[in-house]
Amino acid sequence: QVALLNLNGGLGTTMGLTGPKSLLELREGLTFLDLLALRVQHHRKTFGGRLPLILMNSFNTTRETTRALRRHSHLGDQGFPLELLQSRVPKVQVRDLAPVRWPQNPQLEWCPPGHGDIYLSLHCSGMLHSLIRQGFRYLFVSNVDNVGAVLEMKIPAWMHDQGIPFLMEVADRTEVDRKGGHLARLHDGRLVLREVAMCPDDEFDDFQDIQRHRYFNTNNLWVDLPRLEEVLTRCDGLLDLSLIVNRKRVVPADPDSPEVFQLETAMGAAISIFAGAQALRVPRTRFAPVKTLEDLLAVRSDAYELTHDHRIHLDPGRQVPPRIRLDPEVYRTVEDLQRHMPWGPPGLRACSSLSIHGEVIFGQDVICQGDVEILASSPWRIPDGATLSGSVRKP
What is the pLDDT of residues 53-108, one digit of tens each? Predict the structure, then answer.
């Protein structure tokens, strides 16, 4: 009775990529998309269910993702399209609030409307009705780059027992989450998701107080499909989600191009719409997004392991991932990472933290232990088989 929907609308621009982030290689030649497809295949074989997989693509990712899915033809035999195509909306000029015109590249006149568009897209495409008609009750939604967001069947079973229509997985906020969105409760008892873009300046200190607002949204959501259909029918398919206004340039890399507003909504904001919606506190292991080169290095290293059922999780001997800081002047793209680590990442299984300053190239079978800081004022190649610990400087 469960279907999977993965958000696949993003490009890996922060890592220097120009295509869908889901096509970035993670482990053993496998991409985010490959691992997702293999997990679904494994689940179907093991438990015998259909388990539909739906990818919500944007106009930026649909073509390349569709091409990549040809390697996984087994996924198409599920009774549903693999793709749910997200809407696109015009960028709005700051100076007059009119849709921007950019004849040099008309594609830049548009932007995705945020993942809050999922509900309208499910409704208008007919996919929501189709899922319900074929007997599916719950939808598990997560980001494709969150390697911790794996299917856990105990959650929908608990939702069914408790009659919960909408469930948000939340985790404890830490210092690194201070600027991220948090969960709060309104005076009438309803839960609400508050993002930093929605916070008035005079409340910013309270917003960042992780003792006052203890939980953040992992963006792993579970939705009761018939209840969603009821709510969408009442509001003609358009949920009243809080608007997020992002101020950017029409050409992101050109600071002289016109300023625009990009208007978005967040899917987690729907928690305040469903009567009886709940939050479920989950371990941090269910929130392991690969957003930065540091995240990518950790996941590619032996601090994580790839299991027989195609999950990536921390080595059993670790409680938390290694803390990694890469020199931003040296490591800007995935290609930079691979050029400086031609044999793959150093061993990080026993590494608490790794900080790299300067131009450092790692030899084969290098191992880092404990807290490691590498300082190189000029290019330096770490020799094959070296074991590093503490502060290490170029000789």
Answer: 999 999 999 999 999 999 998 887 788 899 999 999 999 999 999 999 999 999 99
How much is the pTM? 0.93
Tens digit of each residue's pLDDT (9 = 90 or more) over 370-393 = 999 999 999 999 999 999 999 999
The verdict on 263 and 336 lying in the same domain is: no
Task: Clarify whether 21 is annotated catalytic.
Answer: no
Report d(CA 329, CA 326) in Å as an integer.
Answer: 9
Check residue 146 and report its DSSP letter: B
Catalytic residue among 21, 179, 291, 394: 291
Q: How far, CA to CA in Å, does 230 sit from each of 21, 165, 238, 359?
A: 34, 11, 12, 58
Statement to judge: residues 235 and 338 lie in one domain: no
Domain that holds residue 109: 2-286
- Whether residues 88 and 115 share a domain: the answer is yes
Report H helices in 163-254: 204-207, 225-234
Judge if 71 and 217 occupy the same domain: yes
Helices (H), the chain: 32-47, 62-68, 118-125, 127-133, 154-162, 204-207, 225-234, 293-300, 334-340
